[in-house]
Predict the structure.
Amino acid sequence: MSNYVPPFCEYAIGHVYHGAKNIRCPNVPGMVAPVFLADVNNKTIVCKFSDEAIIKKNLIISDLMNEYQIPAPKLKMHSYRGAWFEAYEYIPIKTLQEHIEDGISEQHLMNAYAQAIKIQNKISQIPISDFLPTKYRYHAEILAMHLQSSQSPFAMYKRFLARNAMAGHQILLHCDIHPKNILYSPETGHVFLIDLDAVGLCNETFSVLKMLYQSPLKNHDELMNIYEAETGRQLHRHAIKLSLNTVHTIHNHRGTILQLYTKIQSLTK
């Protein structure tokens, strides 16, 4: 993604969408891939630059979710001079992250997550025989690609988690449910999940672990109760809680770990 600098991305968007105006970054920027908004013919279009194979996989997910009447963006795929981007019509609803910054109530937070879990359950019911991309069928492949260039102790631990994402029984899931990927309307209660990069075959324990770790809600048992009631599937709570404690320990002691890691590197040069 390093070659996708803003001037080039803006030019690519303008080339594909003639007359595009006010090309800009969204309030909540993309965490991995460059994301832009553009005004085109009285509509706002979201443009996300990414790997060609990832976008092709996302197109399959988008079509499947629309086929099974699951709320999701309807994607189109574009390219310009070897750069690829997916595009869809902007959904005029704030992310949950923006609502949190505005001071949303805990009741609304819980409702947003309950609705997101409903969507997750519908995704999990899509037959995996319908999901046949040529690459990036497994979410662990996406994780491995994002982490391959980093040698930090945190990246190595995440690679370990990525291997766990492939362990055991796997179903189709959104594996990155967090406030930046949840669009929520407090007025209507409607929720949309964005970032289709994160949808793929995955171990359910890993998917729930990520959701809980990134949730602003601290009552994890209540969220897991909602999850089990909605899906009818029993979670491996002990494994999830043990992994959460491990991740939190690493996060809380990241300064010390980085110091030790840097010292070890210097001694082995």
Q: What stands out?
A: The longest strand covers residues 43-50.
